[in-house]
Design a protein that fits this description.
Layout lengths: L29 H12 L14 E2 L8 E2 L10 H14 L9 H15 L16 H6 L3 H12 L7 H21 L15 H16 L6 H12 L20 H30 L6 H31 L3 H5 L6 H17 L1 H18 L15 H12 L22
Antiparallel strand pairs: 1-2
Length: 415
């Protein structure tokens, strides 16, 4: 006898409503074009970028504090090069043809070459130390930015051999991150003035890697979400301080957690599609359906976490003191603006429209005459500040579509 309608497995009723597709991004204006031109002009001969001047931490052992000046070496590093290439890709640049193709191709080659030198055991991917990024937002920031750009580069290489190398390197970097991820989702030794910012970059990178088909166990993403949800008041969206340093600046903490949660939620849409199919599949076992129900409940809670935090942030960005961050623009502010802009863009509506108008004016006002941006505190290097400022004003080009679901058979063991 066929089961009644009430007895048939039901798909998740909590699936989010379809969000209207966002408007196509506007053409790049003069502010963005001048910034991209400055980055292209300052690319090093090896294809990478250094931090673009400013202080460095003195690691010579002869004296403490910072060193600065024209005689201080500024070699190309993975962190700065990764964020610059991410910026060029967001602008629409390609590796094989068109504007800035030679710049992006050289940068991609640099990253493949340098990341391949990393050892298999530590959490480092770079031999370049003492950078502002490492000192200020976390020792392993290069690793997290490498995972992000290797995900973003999927399908961008015209040479299949380089695409294969990209995928292998991404799996290697993800494995390093997974090996060192603690049960609370954080990383021992990732000290920095505002390490919450690199933790947020890691969240986005891991979720981007999963969406690109890399070998990311879902348990890794769930531990990462756990640390993002730490201290979150699920009724109000207020986030208490955590063990990960945030320099006492609220926007750093809120923006980092929101950035990771938003990327996780986009992946959850793809996961939900597959799990709902399992619930109504006549071939699925009772155990598989029960596991699917449990995972859907976890997804529902994670999505609720992101929604309440996003609502809180959408309100807080109307507060001048919150947006001011440390009190003036530095790389930390720009990356926080980037995370918030991407989340509000995915949400759409008046909150996004108001934020975009505010940020475009704020960022344009801070641009230097040569097209670059420089921080006024902490991360002052022009490379990172220029790239992240450009990412802020190109938030309308950030991806908002959910990740395509990845078949369970393609997921690594452990989930």
């Amino acid at each position: 006898i066929s089961p009644s309608a009430e007895e048939k497995p039901q798909a998740d009723e909590a699936a989010p409503q379809t969000i209207p597709a966002p408007s196509p991004p506007r053409p790049l204006g003069s502010v963005a074009n001048q910034g991209l031109a400055w980055l292209a002009k300052t690319q090093n001969a090896d294809g990478g970028w250094g931090q673009g001047g400013g202080w460095r931490t003195n690691t010579s052992g002869k004296q403490g504090g910072r060193v600065e000046g024209d005689n201080v070496a500024d070699p190309s590093d993975i962190g700065n090069t990764s964020i610059v290439l991410q910026c060029f890709l967001r602008s629409g640049a390609k590796l094989e043809n068109g504007d800035y193709s030679a710049v992006t191709a050289r940068a991609a080659d640099f990253l493949l070459r340098e990341i391949a030198k990393a050892d298999a055991d530590s959490l480092h991917v770079t031999s370049v130390r003492d950078t502002q990024l490492q000192s200020k937002i976390g020792l392993y920031v290069d690793t997290f930015l490498a995972a992000q750009i290797l995900s973003d580069l999927k399908g961008k290489f015209p040479d299949p051999a380089n695409e294969k190398k990209r995928a292998e390197l991404l799996d290697m970097v993800v494995a390093k991150i997974a090996k060192h991820q603690q049960d609370d989702g954080a990383f021992a030794g990732n000290q920095g003035w505002a390490a919450t910012l690199s933790q947020g970059l890691c969240s986005k990178a891991l979720n981007s890697a999963w969406a690109s088909g890399a070998k990311v166990d879902l348990a890794i993403l769930e531990k990462d979400h756990k640390q993002n949800a730490e201290g979150l008041d699920r009724d109000t969206g207020v986030v208490a301080k955590s063990a990960v340093a945030d320099a006492g600046v609220d926007i750093y903490r809120y923006a980092s957690k929101l950035g990771g949660m938003t990327r996780f939620r986009q992946n959850n849409d793809g996961r939900r599609t597959e799990l709902n199919a399992t619930l109504v599949s006549p071939e699925a076992t009772a155990e598989e359906k029960e596991a699917g129900k449990k995972e859907l409940a976890e997804i529902k809670q994670a999505d609720a976490d992101q929604a309440v935090l996003l609502e809180q942030v959408a309100g807080k960005v109307k507060e001048k003191a919150f947006v001011a961050g440390f009190g003036n623009n530095g790389g930390e502010e720009f990356i926080s603006f980037m995370n918030i802009g991407e989340a509000l863009h995915a949400k759409g509506g008046n909150d996004w429209i108001d934020w975009e108008k505010q940020m475009n004016a704020t960022v344009a006002k801070a641009q230097n005459e040569d097209g670059s941006w420089a921080g006024q505190h902490c991360i002052t290097g022009r490379t990172f500040c220029t790239a992240t400022a450009l990412m802020v004003i190109m938030s309308d080009r950030a991806p908002v579509e959910p990740a395509a679901p990845i078949a369970a058979k393609d997921q690594p063991a452990g989930k």
